[in-house]
Amino acid sequence: MLKISLDTLRYYNEIQLFNPDYINPSNNYRFYSEEQVNDLLYIIDLKECGFNLDEIKTIINLSDKTEMKKIFEKKKTDLLDQRKKINLSIDKIETSIKNII
Fold this sequence. Notes:
Elements: H1 6-14, E1 22-23, E2 30-31, H2 34-48, H3 53-61, H4 65-100
Antiparallel strand pairs: 1-2
């Protein structure tokens, strides 16, 4: 449904990031509640924003909004720094392209 591999779900369970609602003991099938879909979507969003799994685990377990805001602000700063570096690289490549012609 969310295009998450079984290996990924098993790994998330192994590291206690995202656990199934129920595991059938006879066949080890994992079952997830409808409510858990939103949790998994949040994890996917955080990964797409560049957070690693340890950071995501920290965010999910935080109840302190101030601390959570600090983590998000730091990631934003890191991403802005990356964007500056990428823009500089693009500028250098464009200059190299112009010099080739």
